Amino acid sequence: MMARRFQSRAWYRFSAEPMAVLGLVLLAAITLAAILAPFVTPFPEHASSFVDFRNMSQPPSASHWFGTDLVGRDVLTRVVYGYRISLTVGIVVLGLAVPLGVTLGMIAGYAGGRLGAVIMRITDVFLAIPALVLAMAVLGVLDRTLINGLIALAVLWWPWYTRMVYNQTRAIRNEGYVVAAQVVGASHSWVLFGEILPNLVPSILTKFTLDLGFVILVASALSFLGLGVEPPTPDLGSMVAEGAGYLPDMWWMPVFPGLAILLVVLAFNLVGDGLRSMFGDGM
Amino acid sequence: MSTDPVFSIENLHLRIRQFEGEAHILNGVNLHLRAGERVALVGESGCGKSSTAMMSLGLMEARSMRAEGRIILDGTDLLSLRRRGWQGVRGRQISMIFQDPGAALNPVFTVGDQLVTAIRRGNPSKSRSDAQGLATDGLRQVHINDPERVMSSYPFQLSGGLNQRVLITMALINRPKVVVADEPGSALDVTVQEQTLRLMTELCADVDAAVLLISHNLGVVRRFAQRIYVMYSGTIVEEADTATLFSAPRHPYTKALLAAVPRLTGERLPEPIPGRVPDYTDPPVGCRFRPRCPHQRSECVDPPFAEPAPGHRVRCVL
Amino acid sequence: MRSAAAAYPAGDEVLIRIEDLWRDFVMRSGTIHALAGVSLDIRRGRTLALVGESGSGKTTLGNQILGTDTPTSGRILFEGRDMPARRDTQMRRRIQVVQQSPYTTLNPKRTVRQILDLPLSIHDGGPRRQRRERIAELLEIVGIPSDFMERHPHSLSGGQRQRVALARALASKPDVIVLDEPTSSLDVSVQARILRLLVDLQARYGLTYLFITHDLSVVRNIADEVAVLYRGHVVEHGTTPELFRAPRHRYTTMLLSSIPVLSEEEEALKPAWDWDVTATAAEPPSTGTCPFLPRCPHAVASCSLGVPPRVATSPTNWHACCNPRPEGADADAR
Lengths: 283, 318, 334
Description:
The structure holds 3 protein chains of 3 kinds.
Chain A: H1 2-15, H2 18-35, H3 37-40, H4 75-111, H5 113-128, H6 131-141, H7 146-172, H8 176-184, H9 188-224, H10 236-244, H11 252-278
Chain B: E1 5-18, E2 21-34, E3 38-42, H1 49-56, E4 65-73, E5 76-77, H2 83-86, E6 94-97, H3 101-104, H4 111-122, H5 128-141, H6 147-151, H7 160-172, E7 178-182, H8 190-207, E8 210-215, H9 218-224, E9 227-232, E10 235-241, H10 242-247, H11 252-260, E11 305-309, E12 312-315
Parallel strand pairs in B: 3-8, 3-9, 6-7, 7-8
Antiparallel strand pairs in B: 1-2, 1-4, 4-5, 9-10, 10-12, 11-12
Helix pairs in contact in B: 4-5, 5-7, 7-8
Chain C: H1 2-7, E1 14-27, E2 30-43, E3 47-51, H2 58-66, E4 73-78, E5 81-82, H3 89-94, E6 95-98, H4 112-122, H5 128-141, H6 158-171, E7 176-180, H7 188-205, E8 208-213, H8 216-222, E9 225-230, E10 233-239, H9 240-245, H10 250-257, H11 264-267, E11 311-312, E12 318-319, H12 330-333
Parallel strand pairs in C: 3-8, 3-9, 6-7, 7-8
Antiparallel strand pairs in C: 1-2, 1-4, 4-5, 9-10, 10-12, 11-12
C-alpha cells in the first residue's frame, strides 16, 4: 500500500514535467518499433543484403516515406532496424560499464585510504584520455567487430560511474544508518550492497538513462568513422556516414538516420531529466 | 514607545497545492508589533511559524501557492509587492536573522565585503569607505574587539558565535523598523545562545527596532520577549504578555506545551501531549487542537477569541 | 532511575572504565585534541550524561565506546577487560546506539521489518519466523503498531523513527546504549514521550545509558551522574543533584546559568554569571593550561601553569578548576 502510494507520488512529480512525459512516449514508441521491426516496417527484407536497382536512390514518396538508398532499400525500414542495433549497443555497453564502475566506486568511497586512492587514480587516468581517442585505440588493437566496439565503449564509460558513485558513497558512508549497521556488527559487504547501494540507485538510474543516449551517439560516431558495425547490418551511424557522400542531391539518405539518432538521444535526455526531478536533485 | 503597530499581519491565509491535495498552512494569522517591541511567535515544528516569517519577508515563493490577507509594514501591504517593490523594503525596513549563521553568510566573500554590500544596498549613496567605517562601528557594537580582523576574515574562519554576531550586525546595520529572527543561535550552544539573546535585546533597543522572534523553545521565548503568540497548526491560539502566559496560560495547548518541557527542578519527567499534529490537507473543523484536547466539546467547532484580560486573547471556548 | 539501579544487586559496579583516553585529529592547521586525557567510569544500570558544547568531544567519546572510532592512546575496559580495537560480534551486541537525527538513522530504502531484522540475523535471532515474532515484540515494546512493519521510514514521524531506532538498538539485547542527542531533533511534546520510554526501558532491562546531550534540563531529569566536557577535558563530574545544586568549575557555572527556563522557581536554581565580562573566545587554548582559560573571567595565575588537577568535593563529585566557584555562592552573588 505504502509502496504504491510512493510510486504514484513519484509519478506525480515525473508527470509534472511535460517534456519528460513526451520523452517517455517517444522512447516507448522507438523501443516498440525496434522490437516489432519485422511487423511494423514496410519492407522487413530490406534490413539485410537486398538489392533492387529499379528503385535505387528514390526520394521520399508514398511507398518509401524516407526514400531509398543506393541499392534500392527502404530507408525507413533500415532506420527502424538501426534502432535495434543502437538500443542493443547502449544496453550492452552500459550493462558492462555500470556494474564495474559502481562496484569500484563504492569500494573506493567506503574503504577510503590507500585502496580508495589507488582506485581513484586509475579512474582519473581513464577520465583524462579523450573518449573517442580511447575507443579508437582499443579498436586499433582489436579486430573491428561489433563485440570489440562494445568493449571499447564499456572501457570508456565505467570511470564516470566510479567517479559519481565514489563521491556519493563518501557522503553516505557517515550517514546514521550506515554507522548503525556497523555498530550492530554488519559485514562490509552487507553495508556496501545492503545499505549503501539501494540509496545510489536513483542517481545511477538517472545517469544510466542519460548515458544510453550518449552511448548511442558515440557508437554512431564510431560507425561514422568506419569503426563500428559491418555492412550490411543497418546501423544509424554508418548510414549517415555513407549518405553524407551524396549530399545535397540525395539528402534523405543521411538526414533521416541523422534525425533518428537525434530523436533517440533527445528522448533519453528528456526522460533522464524527468527522473532527476522525480528523485530530487540528489545528483 | 508609540502604541500604533509598526508591523501587522491581518487574517493571513496560506494554501499550497501538493500531491496529497491543498494544504491549508496558515489559517487566519493575526499579529502585530509595536515600535521597538520584542514579540515571540512560539510553536512546534510544522505549526506555520516559519512560513509566517518567510511570508513577512516575501521569501516564500511557489508556483502552487495561494496567499490571502494583509501584511502591513508602516502602511504598505507587503503581500501586494512584486519583486521590484521588495528591493526598497527587504534589508532596509525589515530584515532577518537566520538560524544557522554558517549557512546564512556567503563563504566566498569576506565578512567586510558582505557588510559593505548590505549597507550600500540599503543606502546606495554611501561611499565604500563610509560604509566600511559604519561596518566597523557595527561590529564594535556587538562587542567584537578586533573588527578589522573580523572584517577581513571569511565566515568559515570565524567561530559560530562570531558569525552570529556578524549576522546580527548585518540585520541591524540599516536600522530597520522590524527584524524577524528565526531561532537565532539555536544551531549553536546554550552559552552562545544566551549571549546572542542579550545582544539582540541591547541592540534592538538602541536602534528602536521591533523584533519578531520565531522559536520552538519556550525558555528562550520567556527570556527574550515582552509579548508572546502561541501558534498551533497554522492558527494563533493564544496571545499574552510574557508574565501572564507563563503564570496563567488559558489555552489547553499552551498548558500542554508548558507541561511537556523538562524542568530544572528535576521533580518529575515532562508530560507528553497525546496524539499528533493534524494533517494540513484535511484539518479538523474549528479548533485544530480539538482531537488532542482533554476538554473538547461541541462548541469547539467555532471557538471565538476570548479576552480574559486586556491584551490576553485565547481562541478557546473554555 | 533509582529503581533501575535497584534492579541490579551491585548497583555501583563499574561496567565501562575509560582511562586517560586521547584522540588526536591531525589537521593542516595543527593537531586538535578532541579528547585530551579523559578518565571516567560508567556504572551498570545507571545513566551517565555527557554534556558540553559542540566540539567539546562528547560525540567523539561516544564513538570510542561504540568502537566506530579508535583512540590515539588510552584504554577502555569493559567489565574489567581491555576492549580490542576491532570489536568482535559479541562485543558489538553488547553496546548499541541511538543517534541524533531521526532523518538519517534509518535507511530510507528499507522497511521497518528489514531494519530490525539486521541485528537479529547477525546476533542469532533464529529462523525467519521466530525473528518476525521478535520484531513484532520489539515494536510493541517501543510503542509502534505492528502493522508499521512493512512501512518505509519516510512515512514515519520523527518520534516514530526514533522509536524504531531504539527498537533496533534493543534487538541485540545490549548492556549499554549510547544515546547521542536522541531527542534534540524532536518537538518537546514528542521528546517527553521518548524520555519516558527510555526511563521505562532502563528499569525493565537494567540498561546502562551514556546520554550525550547539550540540553541540561533533560539531564537534570534523566541522568544519575553528569560529566561536563570542555574541549576534550572532563572539567567536572559527579552525581546530578549535587552538580546542579553546587556547580564548582567556572565553565559548569556558566553553562548552568545559560539554561533557558520557564519559571522563577527554576530561575532561582541557576547559578549567577556575569555575562558582560565573558569573552566569546575563538582562540583555542594552548595545551598545558586550563582549557577554559581564554574565556574565563575568574582566571588566576595557577590556571596557566598546567591542566588543573582533579579536586574531590565529596565522595562522588570532583572538578578541575584552580579558582572554583565557592560553595554556597548563590546567596552572596545575587
